[in-house]
Every structure is written in structure tokens, then in C-alpha cells.
Design brief:
Rossmann fold, 5-stranded parallel sheet, 4-stranded parallel sheet, 19% strand, globular
Length: 290
Amino acid sequence: MNARRRAPRGEFVVITGLSGAGRSKAANVLEDLGWFVIDNLPAALLDKVAELVRQPGSAIDRVGLVLGTRDVGELHAGLAHLRDAAERVRVVFLEAPDDVLVRRFEDTRRRHPFEDEGGLVKAIAKERAALEPLKGEADVVVDTGDLNVHQLRERIESLFGSEHAEGGLQTTVMSFGYKHGLPLDVDLVLDCRFLPNPHWVEELRPHTGKDPAVRDYVLRQPEAVDFLDRLDNLLELLLPAYVAEGKSYLTIAMGCTGGHHRSVVMAEEVAALLRLRGFEPRVSHRDIDR
């Protein structure tokens, strides 16, 4: 049989994104999870790796690839070939704010791959602009700016460590506080600040949305019940459409002022709605301890 006519085979995770955003650290986590990982692979070799995986008798079926970003056009072409050759390809795009990237490069004393006489800040801006189309095509975008190495490990493990073998749509629901900044690596952001704030109820203020008294207070509000009913109708529309479109990840973020009360309650309720629809969401509360 002609090699080019072999059936697609293998599961690939491609880790790309901004230099300094943690691509190699993410690759280390994949390797610990049992993936066969190749770091700093030239994009031109993507089809060669896919062909090796498709060879008869190959024992390699889960491959993590860390791709540099110097030649964006070559990267796009390589990904297109890989998607034709593999059973499943997911792209993880890592990013971070400019000030974080500058600090990381200064700490390591490494040279940025886009750096020239314009300096580091301009190099970061140039790379960010060049990669914007690739970011738009990624299955998941992870902002590592506020993540330490342990938190990054937890994020990668949540994406690839315990998923079902058949894949499908992986869902995450998170709560956050607007005063701590919007989460950047989410798909849907819903504002819960229209609900009465338990912070102004003295006996509830020290507690969080995980406390039954806070939960009961929030869910006693007619607006909360109506909001959840309408959101459930929206999920009824969106979830099958996302699955049909081949979307791999969906992250829903619920926000309130501080991330302690309303958003925590509502995030838990949204997770319950997802479970009723056959999903197994991961739930996190970003700012609950701040």
C-alpha cells in the first residue's frame, strides 16, 4: 500500500505559542503523563513524524510536539499535513502578558527568536502579531502569566491527563473576581454581578459560595433561578453544535466582584447543568482564596 494512502493514525497534541510562555514546561508534563514528546521540532518535519506513527507495528500512538514559531507560514502548512495524517490533532497555544515575558527572558538571559536591533519588547510584539492567526485556530489558549510551574502542570493535566480515550468535548467551569482581572483563556464569560451580593450580609461575608448558607441566599433570588433556566436553554443549543463542529474544549467563566460568593455558587450550578447533559466538567474557583 502506498504510504500516502495509509489510514490516519495517532493522537497528536501540538504545543505552540509565544516564546517564554512555557512551551517546554508544558511538554515535560505531557511526557510525565506518558506521551511521546518531541521538543523544538521544526514545522517542516511534522509530516515525517506523522508518517512514522502510521508505520505498521508502530507502538507510538500519543505524541506531543513542541513547535517553534520562527516560520509561521511553514507552521501552518505543517499543521495542515498533520491534520490529514492523524486521527486527532489538538493545538495548545500558550501566551502571557508582555511584562511577564520580558521578565522571564531577562531572568534566563536567553535571546528572543524574533529579536533584532529593535530590542526585546519589539520582538515580543512582532511575534505576538505573527502568531495571532494561529492563536485563533487553537483548540485551547492558556495564559501562563499568573501560573507558577505547579499551576501550569495542573492545567495541562486537566486537559490531557484524565480524559476519556474517545475524546469529545471537555468542559471546565470556573469562577473569578472582576477586581482581579478577566480570565483570558476562556470561551464564555458570564457576569453574575446583577445578583444581590452576600458580601453585604454580615453573617455571610466571611464565608464563600461553597457554604450552604451562601448558596441558599444566592439561589433564593428569582433572578438567579431565571438566569440558570435561560442559560440551560442556551447550553442546549450550544453544546451539540460545539460537539458537531469538533470543538475539543469549552471553558465557561462566571464572574462576580471578588470571586468569593455569587460566582462560586453559579459556577457550581452551571457544572451541575453540564452533568445533567452528560458532561463531566472540571470546576475551579480562581479567586476564592484571595
